[in-house]
């Protein structure tokens, strides 16, 4: 029996740019078998309600922080910063149970789908009970995230975090970090234990050494070697150069800036995602781009935490690869992350339309394609757009939405990113050939939202 399904789009954003009259076909495994432009729609074929976009990978997520979003927007000292925010976040994290985490993550992943994300890289560092003792099983919180992704219907790359120290030079962890701590051997055992569960739902499994300040050099090398002994292609994600305090501490410790140290001491390549990488000098920008690692940019969170501005033109001048993530989930919207990234570049350069290219003069089209390619690489999954062999992940915009109606297709995407006035122009979302969002809503929207509110209320009681 032929299990192939199809969708016809008047306009679709293919890897090479916009195409007309596109017939998308996928098989029972949810992979594209044919992407044909200038086609005719066979009788009975589903027709998209508007332009079809590739599904966006979210390359950096701390799911539990969705429950904390908006709760630190008050001045608690003379000068608030990332570090004062972190102390408040630790207090929130100390109270989470597996049930809280699963409820928060399920709702978050539904929000992501409704906002145009079709997969997520979960940078997961909340491992143990509040007193630091392991759960039984030790993988309980990781499994809660896998269950949440399966319930929501989003693709996931699970990235358990290796966290051992509170600062450069092997400083012992603080009391607020005891839920995060694992030895290197313990982490590698966790990865072995999680591999079957990830494989069972088509999830990828990688490793996230938290940062250079949290993992000493010998442990970093041993962990990455152990990961790649299990799976040579597994992704490695690391926070790096997010704050100038971190850069200066790394200089004091090693005599080098963080990205320079990492590139000299570790085999950084296309399997790596350098999350934030905000504060680099010219040599670091050039060398990191040449490594083929992905820069993991989280513009809304970076703005919220006062991190600084990533220099996108300098990165792209070296053919650097990049993608977007929602990180702390102060906002959960793929279009708004792209808008914030472009606007930060405009503020820094005092120019407009900074992220466009000669091939793609429309800013949103260029950014969408670049972020999908970089996000797929960072995820370690075949989610690189509307192309044969890739997973059938796609987002259909509502062509009748007030911000899009009557516009040429490239301007429709520009308006989706820059002119939706915080409304949502996403009509439907498909993941692995399954429709997860219809008419802008996930079928579990209401029940998952209620469970999220109940979990957050319990945590704040």
Automatic annotation (TrEMBL):
Keywords: Hydrolase, Metal-binding, Zinc. Residues 52-434 form the Amidohydrolase-related domain. It holds the Pfam family Amidohydro_1. The keyword Metal-binding applies. Transmembrane segments: none annotated. The keyword Zinc applies. GO terms for molecular function: formimidoylglutamate deiminase activity. Its EC number is 3.5.3.13. InterPro entries: Amidohydro-rel, HutF, HutF-like_N, Metal-dep_hydrolase_composite, Metal_Hydrolase, Metallo-dep_hydrolases. Its cofactor is Zn(2+). Residues 7-43 form the Formimidoylglutamate deiminase N-terminal domain. This is Formimidoylglutamate deiminase. It comes from Comamonas odontotermitis.
């Amino acid at each position: 029996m032929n299990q192939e399904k199809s969708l016809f789009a008047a306009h679709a954003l293919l890897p090479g740019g916009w195409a007309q009259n596109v017939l998308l076909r996928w098989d029972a495994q949810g992979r594209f078998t044919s992407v044909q432009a200038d086609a005719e729609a066979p009788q009975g074929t589903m027709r998209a309600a508007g332009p079809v976009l590739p599904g966006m990978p979210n390359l950096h997520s701390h799911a539990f922080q969705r429950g904390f979003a908006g709760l630190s927007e008050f001045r608690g000292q003379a000068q608030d910063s990332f570090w004062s925010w972190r102390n408040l976040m630790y207090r929130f994290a100390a109270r989470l149970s597996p049930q809280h985490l699963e409820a928060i993550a399920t709702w978050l992943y539904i929000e992501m789908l409704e906002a145009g994300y079709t997969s997520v890289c979960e940078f997961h560092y909340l491992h143990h009970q509040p007193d630091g003792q392991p759960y039984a099983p030790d993988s309980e919180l990781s499994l809660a995230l896998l269950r949440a992704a399966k319930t929501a219907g989003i693709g996931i790359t699970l990235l358990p975090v290796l966290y051992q120290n509170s600062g450069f030079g092997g400083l012992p962890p603080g009391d607020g970090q005891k839920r995060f701590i694992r030895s290197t051997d313990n982490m590698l055992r966790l990865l072995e234990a999680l591999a079957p569960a990830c494989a069972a739902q088509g999830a990828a499994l990688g490793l996230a050494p938290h940062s250079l300040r949290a993992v000493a050099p010998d442990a970093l090398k041993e962990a990455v070697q152990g990961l790649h002994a299990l799976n040579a292609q597994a992704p490695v994600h690391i926070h790096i150069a997010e704050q100038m305090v971190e850069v200066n501490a790394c200089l004091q410790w090693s005599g080098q800036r963080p990205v320079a140290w990492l590139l000299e001491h570790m085999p950084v390549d296309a399997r790596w995602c350098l999350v934030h990488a905000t504060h680099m000098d010219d040599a670091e920008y050039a060398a990191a781009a040449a490594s083929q690692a992905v820069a993991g940019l989280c513009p809304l969170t970076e703005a919220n935490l006062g991190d600084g501005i990533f220099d996108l033109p300098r990165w792209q001048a070296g053919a650097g690869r990049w993608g977007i993530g929602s990180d702390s989930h102060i906002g959960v919207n793929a279009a708004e992350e792209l808008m914030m990234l472009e606007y930060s570049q405009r503020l820094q350069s005092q120019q407009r339309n900074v992220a466009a290219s000669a091939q793609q003069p429309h800013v949103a089209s260029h950014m969408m394609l670049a972020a999908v390619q970089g996000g797929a690489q960072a995820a370690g999954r075949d989610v690189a757009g509307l192309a044969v062999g890739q997973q059938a992940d796609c987002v259909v915009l509502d062509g009748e939405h007030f911000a899009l109606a009557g516009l040429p297709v490239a301007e429709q995407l520009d308006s989706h990113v820059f002119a939706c006035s915080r409304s949502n122009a996403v009509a439907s979302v498909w993941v692995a050939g399954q429709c997860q969002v219809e008419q802008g809503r996930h079928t579990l929207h209401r029940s998952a939202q209620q469970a999220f509110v109940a979990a957050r209320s319990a945590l704040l009681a």
